[in-house]
Amino acid sequence: MTVTKRTLFIPQLLVLVTLVLLTLLDLNPQALVALLCAALMGLWIAGAFVEPFSLLLSALALAGTTSVLSLLHISGVPFSVNGLLVAGIGGACGLAVLLHYRHLFRTLAQLRRWLLESAPLSLLLVWALIRTPGAPSLSDAISDILIWGALLLVYVLARAYWVEHPDMLPVGTRAFLYVGFLTLGMIVVDSLLGNVFFNESDPRLTPGLHTTAGARTIPAFFGLALVPVLAYLRFEHAAPRTNRRLLAGLAVVLAMWVYFSLGRAALLGAAGVVIPLILFAPRALWKAVILVAVGVGLTAALIQSPLYPREKLGTIQDAISIEEEISASESGEEAPSRPRTRPRVTVNEGMLQGITFGRTAVWKYLVERAINEAPLTGFGTGAARDRSADIIPSWDNPHNDFIRVFFDQGAIGLLILVLSWAVLLLLCWQNWLRLGPGTHAAAYNFAALTAGGYILLNFLTDNFIVYFFIMAPFWLLTATESAATVHVEVLEGTELPAT
Question: Which tens digits make up the pLDDT trace of 295-323?
């Protein structure tokens, strides 16, 4: 096994870029696409044997394509090329773990720590497998399980690799910094082909910047990509000036794309969570909470202001109003000169659906069905994908991951989701405080914490939990903080090297 070389990543990247170019050119030659997919998976299997690190770089590069390969299909295969590649990279990562890192899973203490740190994936995946039999759509259930399984295997390989080879952590973090350039290159090619435009008035399309990848995938990815870039600029004070200028320019471009894409959730996450947390790097939990609350509030005000170039379909005040209602006298006597009043909340459901582009109608339908019919265990894995179309036929996702998990996995699944994410972020927060702000391990933990906040906020209005291009970079970030923390503990004598 060659642990410090990335030779195989070059042909892996070339094949992946070729598939992306076919997509941007709106070409789908079946034989060529199948051949390229087979070649890429063959290179990944080779990487599992001789260069596991190339698989981590390929997973990040695949995320940088922002699911544009979902537009490519192979006849007779029920999943898109993107789905096939997600499953393929997951399988290759699993093979690499079996070949090289089995010794990291021998003791109960090792397994307990792996389970704790990967709980948002591992526990939810176990419960999803239990809830798959009887699911209304087996293909939807398999799709969710393949995505979560691939993410778990990518994380397991990444953490194991960086625990065994700490000298490669800086190389991995540099990959996070430059993956945004891959997506920007895709945008440049797309614009030269005439596929990039700004929609202002067409009601059939989402307002904002459009590319072949769509209108919302790229800004969602860029909002997350801001985390490692800004963390590097914030904490790496001794970095070369040229690198800092290059990354500062990249951060500006990413932020501008998020803003002009008119994606409100991505902007709320980037400007309300990522930028204030990285900028101030709070060392007290109450300060972090206040920073996020103020950041989200100011960003929401900006979205409602004339500075935000998006047509207003209405405001929250139009959809939700609070009126004073005169309450009747409880004693039945004549009302006093100053009658008692109480607030009454009135919801204009039609206006609210317009503001959220139909989301609230889908959410209400799914929540009511889940509460009335299957509150404890849900309808089965992938059910929300199928049932969202009952309200909006063109939808195959509910655009709220908390409601998705509740509908699919019931209250048990929702509890697993909330508690496991809380534990993960709490561990990152504790490590950030314990390790000291001047260490690389602390910076890795704070970056993972910030990225987790961005993702949880977008869970409220998007489908991040099944987006490989979002969750793969996050779990790779989490692997860096976990491995770096292990090395600090080993040096301090508080953890066994085998962990």
Answer: 999 999 999 888 898 776 555 555 555 55
